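hey so i finally got around to running the thing on that chain from the lab meeting. sorry it took forever, my laptop kept dying and i had to restart like 3 times. anyway pasting the input first so we r on the same page abt which one it is
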Amino acid sequence: MSASPPTPANYANVPLPALLYASRGTYTDAVQQEQAKAGLPDVPASGEFLLSAMEWSGATVEAVVRWQGVSKQAVSQTVETLVVRGYLERARDPADRRRVKLTLTERGHAAGNAARRAIERLDRELRGRVGTRAIAQARETLIALLEIKHRQRGAATPGGA
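ok and heres what got predicted. didnt touch it at all, straight out
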């Protein structure tokens, strides 16, 4: 028997870390549903953010790894899965033949575009519920949490691409 989720009023006493943990899959679920509708149901959950960030901003895999605060090794299996499933393509970097450049395939672009549609739809719904100012404050809070995390670990804060 599964417990039903608390009503909004009952969330008032839930600690912030629990709220962050409980809400973390909201965007993932929306993206997975949109990608499935687009005929792309095999994007691994760990690869959705990577594909959408590459499509949306032209970010490199290295930049996305920095944004997520994980090691390149931690995403290597995801990258391999995305290559095997036809979402990413490997090619030698013409500027440095020792490096491999990962680019989106047509399928990767389609998955990234589906992710963007889902994110934009969810963003509109969120703005309608809490407003632009509340979202900006939430972003400010999350960035502060990331900065605290990096300071505690003695690492530089990840930045741009």
